[in-house]
Amino acid sequence: NLDSAKASDFYGCIPGNESEQADAEQAYTQCKLGGVTTWVRLPRDQWPAEWAGMTDPVCPLDLALYGHPDAGGYWEAHCEKHLLAAGFTPVTQWRSCFWHERLKLFLTVYVDDFKLSGPKGNLKEGWALIRQGVKTDEPHPLGLYLGCNIRPFTRTTAEGVVLRGREYDMEDFLRDAVRKY
Fold first, then answer.
1. Model confidence over 59-108: pLDDT tens digits?
2. DSSP conformational letter for 42
3. What are the residues whose beta carbons fall under 8 Å from the beta carbon of 30, sequence distance 6 or more?
4. Three-state secondary structure call for residue 24
5. Based on C-alpha coordinates, what's the Rg of the chain?
6. Are 61 and 33 spatial neighbours (Cβ–Cβ below 8 Å)?
7. Burial 1-17 (b: 16+ CB within 10 A, else e)
8. pLDDT (tens digit, 9 = 90+) per residue, 145-160?
9. Rounded CA gap, 134 and 130, in Å?
10. What are phi and psi of 101, to 5 degrees?
């Protein structure tokens, strides 16, 4: 996915284009869990009033939750189904990457992290299409993505050529890894 994320960054650097990102809110719980029914015990402080007096009640798990072995697959299928309905098509041989032909937008999805690149004037409509079926935070300029701080830059060479690019800074991630391990 890092390759596709950098391809998205490159596409966002083309004159007239831009890149933004958003995170899905409680991603897995946005879809129903399918397959064999999973039964769970709720903490006592989460019991509904009608459970009073019960010894050890259980209930079916309806929503995909982080930690359930099948949750990721159901979230991915839910997300892809919505994106296809919104006019995005999968990029062949590049999992979790999508193209919107009319808007000329390139989308990468990594679990709950969305990065959208393309013509600046089309980003708002692209996000609106995505957000019709996937709850996300407000789309925002590039920042922390997969542990890497991404900072867009514009520089002018001595010859007057304007260069647009991205600086990738993983120093915070490295410091955190050294501290933990």
1. 999 999 888 989 999 999 999 999 999 999 999 988 899 999 999 999 99
2. P
3. 24, 75, 78, 134, 135
4. strand
5. 21
6. yes
7. beebbebbbbbbbeeeb
8. 988 899 988 899 999 9
9. 6
10. -60, -50
- Record the tokens describing residue 9, joined without a space: 């960054």
Judge whether 64 and 31 are in contact, CB under 8 Å: yes
**Statement: the pTM of the whole predicted model exceeds 0.90:** no
Alpha-carbon distances, residue 160 vs 82, 92, 156 (angstroms): 44, 38, 6
Q: Which two tokens stand for residue 46?
A: 């989460």
Beta bridge partners of 107: 98, 116
Structure tokens that stand for 59 in this block: 């209930």
For 11, which DSSP code?
Answer: H
Give the DSSP per-residue string, 135-154. Answer: -B---EES-EETTEEEEEEE
